[in-house]
């Protein structure tokens, strides 16, 4: 995944940020899930709903975690990185929601992910996240 313009530390930080988001989903913690995002992040859900801001992302996901998605996990394929400006990276990948007993390698991805990550000099965060459905 080594790309021009990204240091090894940047690549590690981005992988850890994705892992933090996956771990928060598995715990059903909307606030921790949203902590991966900037305060003013834009998030497009798979159903096409647009969320604006970390608080909206947290509240929406907490409701999701308290629904039929309780006990699920994210299965995110390795993301391809594309630096576009200093401290700005596009991440492209795919993912799915895994229900209890499901294993990521055996489940077809249900969404194509396009994510914009920004580094404010302190840390990487997601400024934009779009989940495009691949199946109905």
UniProtKB/TrEMBL annotation:
InterPro entries: DUF4440 (IPR027843), NTF2-like_dom_sf (IPR032710), Steroid_delta5-4_isomerase (IPR011944). SUPFAM superfamilies: NTF2-like. Residues 14-125 form the DUF4440 domain. This is SgcJ/EcaC family oxidoreductase. It comes from Amycolatopsis cynarae.
């Amino acid at each position: 995944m080594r790309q021009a313009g990204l240091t090894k530390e940047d690549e590690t930080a981005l992988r850890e940020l994705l892992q933090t988001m996956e771990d928060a989903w598995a715990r059903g913690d909307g606030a921790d899930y949203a902590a991966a995002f900037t305060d003013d992040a834009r998030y497009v859900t798979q159903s096409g709903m647009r969320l604006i801001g970390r608080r909206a992302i947290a509240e929406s996901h907490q409701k999701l975690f308290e629904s039929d998605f309780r006990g699920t996990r994210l299965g995110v394929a390795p993301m391809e990185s594309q630096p576009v400006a200093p401290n700005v990276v596009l991440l492209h990948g795919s993912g799915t929601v895994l229900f209890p007993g499901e294993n990521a390698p055996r489940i077809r991805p249900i969404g194509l992910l396009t994510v914009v990550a920004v580094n404010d000099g302190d840390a990487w965060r997601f400024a934009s996240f779009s989940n495009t459905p691949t199946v109905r």
